[in-house]
Amino acid sequence: MEHLFITPTGELRDRWEQAFPRGRAAARVADIGEATSGSQGIVWLDIAALAPAERSAEVQAAAAFGWPVVVMAATPGESEAFQLLKQGAVGYCHLKAAPEQLREVALVVEHGGFWMPPELMQRFLALSTRVVPTKAPVSRELNELTSRELMVAEQVARGASNREISQALSIAERTVKAHLSAIFEKLGVRDRVQLALAMNNIPTHTTVN
């Protein structure tokens, strides 16, 4: 899996190289084809220097290459996140995200999910539950969850982050991650957003290849 960073300088930042030692960089979206050599990868698009009016077009152009696109913004915002996700991005994170978080984003995206910062996800889920009437999901799949897994799933449905779940249930964050992996597999969802929507009985439609 290749990692190509599109940034005005055409050079990798230290945190990007720490996250992906074999990562590459290019200065323009038009250079994606020349800067990559593999058949699978992720395009990380730095939009900090782009005017707001240019960002949607750049995301569309990057997505046209066929690889998942993760947008990196200097000041992430809710409305921009949703707009760029509609234009083809599958991830939206802070430009200065730590290497560990970048690897977490990549893992979600590689498995066909989409990623946004926890605080934006919480607002997204709150909006979804206001727009679509919800009720407690009744599904045989839920019966396959252990009591602890169900507790974790219910926390995700409220928009809680891994750290918040860890504190609420008095378990380690790595245990939360292990529970989530098991939940995803049992319920057939790709990421925590799909899980939250499913728990709130809101239909989801996967468009990511």
From TrEMBL:
Residue stretches making up the HTH luxR-type domain: 138-203
SMART domains membership: HTH_LUXR (SM00421)
Keywords assigned: DNA-binding
Xref: SUPFAM superfamilies: C-terminal effector domain of the bipartite response regulators
Origin superkingdom: Bacteria
InterPro entries to which the protein is assigned, alphabetical: Sig_transdc_resp-reg_C-effctor (IPR016032), Tscrpt_reg_LuxR_C (IPR000792), WalR-like (IPR039420)
UniProt xrefs under Pfam families: GerE
PANTHER family in alphabetical order: TWO-COMPONENT RESPONSE REGULATOR
Record protein name field: Response regulator transcription factor
